[in-house]
Amino acid sequence: MGNETLDQKCVNVIRGLVMDTVRAANSGHPGGAMSSADFAYVLFSEFLNTDPDDARWFNRDRFVLSAGHESALLYALLQLTGRIGMDDLRAFRQLGSLTPGHPERDLTPGVEATTGPLGQGFAMSVGLAAAEAHLAAKLGADVLDHFTYVLASDGDLQEPIALGAASLAGLWGLGKLIVFYDSNKIQLAGPTKRADCCDYKKAFEAFCWQVIEVDGHDRGAIRKAIQTARLDASRPTLIIGHTVMAKGSATREGDHGTHGEPLPPEEIAATKTKMGLPADQFFFAPDDVVAQMRARHDGQRENTRLWRENLKARLADKDFAAYWNMATGPRGKLSLDWPSFEAGTKPATRQAWGKCLDHIAPKLPVLVGGSADLDPSNQTAKFRDAYGVFGAGAFGNRCLAFGVREFPMAAIMNGLALHGGPIPFGATFLTFSDYCRNAIRMSSLQKLPVLYVFTHDSFHLGEDGPTHQPVEHMASLRLIPGVLDFRPADAGETALCLDIALHEEERPSCLFLTRQGLPVLDPATYPGVKDGARRGGYVLADCEGEPELLLLASGSEVSLALEAMALLPGKKIRLVNVVCQALFDEQSEDYKKAVLPPAVTRRASLEAGRTDCWYKYLGCDGLAMGLNHFGESAPAGQLAKKYGFTAEDVARRIRERFF
């Protein structure tokens, strides 16, 4: 039980820092931060288990500010607990500061996840809690035993991704996930009742959560609710805190205008006077408040010292050490080997992925993931059967059954990667990457090497029709900065792309894989196929002397291009296999010019998707052969003929344009 007078002073100081931080920037969101301050204070001063000297201590409690617009609250807490300085608060939302408008995990000590797109912080926290549960089952509770706390807003729960992730968290029984829902019933445009009639207590109870309702400004009730939540090991907990927007302000309590606008100077002065703070002092943090916020630091230091001693003793066990080092070591040093594929056979690249997954999984025990209810189609069914479905009573299992929840799947994978330990993968059809897209963007923004496996990558899906045939999706994903876009030409190259992706330290990878069979290219005939994908693009087949035409292709169209070239005898054509545009674009200018000689201006590209992203290689006068319209429901062979994806049609178009 805290000292109520000092507790209230601490909360008032936090609210004062929030007001000053937002006012100094003349930009930000003070209202929600003020309504959440009581919960945040209780959590940080009494419960959150961290190392004061190491913000990345592995067994720390994770705190995710899903309501990322309340960043001023988090920064005030980080300042009072010693993670950042007061000058960082003064530099809120300014260029180069540690205090951007929404929290960024690789920038600010103590920030666990980049948040702001509402609902995604909530969903990522499910991944964080799942990672803790899985690693605890593998390593023991003496090594992994921490909670994941979340502060969520009305807006978070209105985003369907949060409810999809909540359903999985309840199914999986993630008892160490505790979410405080700051129900202030206000959002940017006005009261939430204009847009929402959901009874979240009933909804979350139906999702198999423990739900506790409290007055969100009653710190005793908050304290008791957190204690109760920590005792329920079988269910995640939602603490619904009924709060008041801009709580404590002189005249603006409950005003939706405080959601996204700084309080006026006169309102701040009046509010500070009402709270007993000096109205003429800015960024006020008295010694007794700082001491209160750091009172547990010595005990936390001792706790982490004992943990490290225990870890050192556990590392004497070779099996434990092998798993620990794989889970916490750099991915670039992983030792991986891959299956071989016989030249001349014609497996689909999705089948090659499945064979690679089955081959590598026993040797890479930190690999976890699953499919969005497409296990047989995505070739993850054998992985599921071999390593079991993750969930209550089976946290050591490695297959995550996401169900038809692509967006939650992607965000949960981000949470797994944020935690550290598991290497996450998720699979679905390429056309459903649109559901995942903003989470993929967040993977890249957070520098998370998540593996996205997208099968059924073109109109060759056939009879399922245009709803399932991707057209613009590869181009769309290539637009996201930092995403690796792998479209392998055959089974062997699929293995190579996976090797690159799994060794990647910071960038997410998207694999675009076929439903239809593709001939395995013989390295004796095409030596570049052995390792060329590591540079993104390479010369697969060449001519004698200077080429007359550069033909660029990817994936299933590489073998098609080879067939078309055979129908153009006597023409000097160089075939460039562009496996990953992102990797190719970052190669040296000398390498790119060697592959694509500037003097050769006759250029064509071939890919079963939108053509826009190929003109950077072709120039304005190039021939981009692709698909800039939706498909149809018909057998794939018929569609190939209609859309010009036969060797005869490709050769004809090249001949008519260039020869």
Short account of what is shown:
The protein is α/β, with parallel strands linked by helices and 659 residues long.
CATH homology superfamily name of the largest domain? Thiamin diphosphate (ThDP)-binding fold, Pyr/PP domains
Number of domains: 3
Structural class: alpha/beta
Describe the main β-sheet briefly. Answer: 5 strands, parallel
Distance between the termini: 85 Å
- Quickly give the CATH architecture of the largest domain: 3-Layer(aba) Sandwich
CATH fold category name of the largest domain = Rossmann fold
Radius of gyration: 28 Å
The tally of helices reads 27
Question: Tell me, what's the shape?
Answer: elongated
Tally of strands: 17
> Order of strands across the biggest sheet?
1-2-3-7-6
Notes on the structure:
With 659 residues, the protein is an alpha/beta fold. It folds into 3 domains: 4-299, 3-Layer(aba) Sandwich (Rossmann fold), CATH 3.40.50; 346-512, Thiamin diphosphate (ThDP)-binding fold, Pyr/PP domains (Rossmann fold), CATH 3.40.50; 527-658, Rossmann fold (3-Layer(aba) Sandwich). The protein contains 27 helices and 17 strands. Strand 11, helix 21 and strand 12 form a beta-alpha-beta unit. The radius of gyration is 28 Å and the shape is elongated.
